[in-house]
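hey
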């Protein structure tokens, strides 16, 4: 996993397929306090498959970050991974962008207009 502190308020995390995905999500959950009031962009460019355990960890991470006043955006998904989010209805739970640059811009716009930001 690559974690890039893009700015004081934005973290970009590059995820990969299992077994790295599970380990990375566990590590992120352990350090969730570090993401207080920050936008976390999770890049799925290295992820081709998700299982139910991966999804559960994503949901737990999202809940923990939101409870700390932060936000989570997912980006760079393959068609197969995006299809899984559609089929499970999680496309209505998470915020998605096409790529890292667009996700960063979305976080920045949300910081400028907090009342307009999606929850």
């Amino acid at each position: 996993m690559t974690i890039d502190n893009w700015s004081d308020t934005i973290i970009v995390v590059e995820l990969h397929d299992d077994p790295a995905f599970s380990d990375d999500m566990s590590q992120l959950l352990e350090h969730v306090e570090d993401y207080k009031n920050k936008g976390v962009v999770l890049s799925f460019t290295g992820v081709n498959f998700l299982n139910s355990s991966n999804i559960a960890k994503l949901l737990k991470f999202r809940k923990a970050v939101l409870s700390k006043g932060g936000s989570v955006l997912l980006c760079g998904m393959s068609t197969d991974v995006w299809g899984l989010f559609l089929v499970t209805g999680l496309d209505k739970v998470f915020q998605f962008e096409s790529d890292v640059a667009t996700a960063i811009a979305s976080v920045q716009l949300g910081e400028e207009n907090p009342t307009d930001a999606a929850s």
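Residues 9 and 38 are 5 Å apart (CA to CA). Residues 113-119 have pLDDT under 50 and may be disordered.
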